[in-house]
């Protein structure tokens, strides 16, 4: 089911870029949250994502993913998340979105 449609100008406010996961570790006291260090092109951000039931931390390192970079920071279980990794909802858990070609970190996604 599709939610209410929004004007294209609203969608254009969302800034998405390609990021490369440099490091990943489980968040203490959580079986779902993983703390990631992500290179978004000249800047490294910490992002906390609910990927722990689907992905092992070792398999996330060096993966290129799509990041929303202009969200307000958020605290999750005592960790600051400065962005959002995009993933598709699958019945077995989130599936990370990535690029078809190997594009540089920081590349704008439209």
List the keywords:
single chain; 110 residues; mainly beta; OB fold (Dihydrolipoamide Acetyltransferase, E2P); 6-stranded antiparallel beta sheet; two-stranded antiparallel sheet; 10 strands; 38% strand
Order of helices and strands: HEEEHEEEEEEE
Question: Would you identify the CATH architecture?
Answer: Beta Barrel
Q: State the separation between the terminal residues, measured CA to CA.
A: 23 Å
Approximate helicity band: under 10%
| Major sheet size, sense and barrel closure | 6 strands, antiparallel
Write out the CATH superfamily name. Answer: Nucleic acid-binding proteins
What's the overall geometry?
A: globular
* Low-pLDDT windows of residues: none
Give an account of the 3D structure.
The protein is mainly β and 110 residues long. It has a single domain (8-96), classed as Beta Barrel (OB fold (Dihydrolipoamide Acetyltransferase, E2P)), CATH 2.40.50. It has helices spanning 8-11, 57-60, and strands at 16-26, 34-39, 44-49, 64-68, 74-76, 79-81, 84-85, 87-88, 95-96, 108-109. Strands 1, 2, 3, 4, 7 and 10 form a 6-stranded antiparallel sheet that branches. A hairpin with a 7-residue loop joins strand 1 and strand 2 (34-39). It is globular and about 40 Å long. It starts with 7 loop residues before the first helix and ends with a strand. 20% of the residues are buried.
């Amino acid at each position: 089911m599709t939610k209410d449609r929004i004007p294209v100008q609203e969608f254009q406010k969302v800034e998405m870029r390609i990021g490369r996961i440099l490091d990943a570790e489980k968040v203490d006291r959580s079986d779902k949250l993983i703390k990631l260090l992500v290179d978004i092109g000249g800047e490294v951000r910490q992002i906390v994502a609910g990927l722990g039931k689907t992905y092992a931390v070792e398999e996330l390192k060096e993966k290129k993913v799509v990041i929303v970079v202009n969200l307000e920071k958020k605290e999750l279980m005592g960790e600051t998340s400065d962005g959002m990794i995009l993933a598709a909802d699958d019945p077995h858990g989130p599936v990370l979105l990535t690029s078809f070609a190997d594009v540089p970190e920081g590349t704008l996604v439209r």
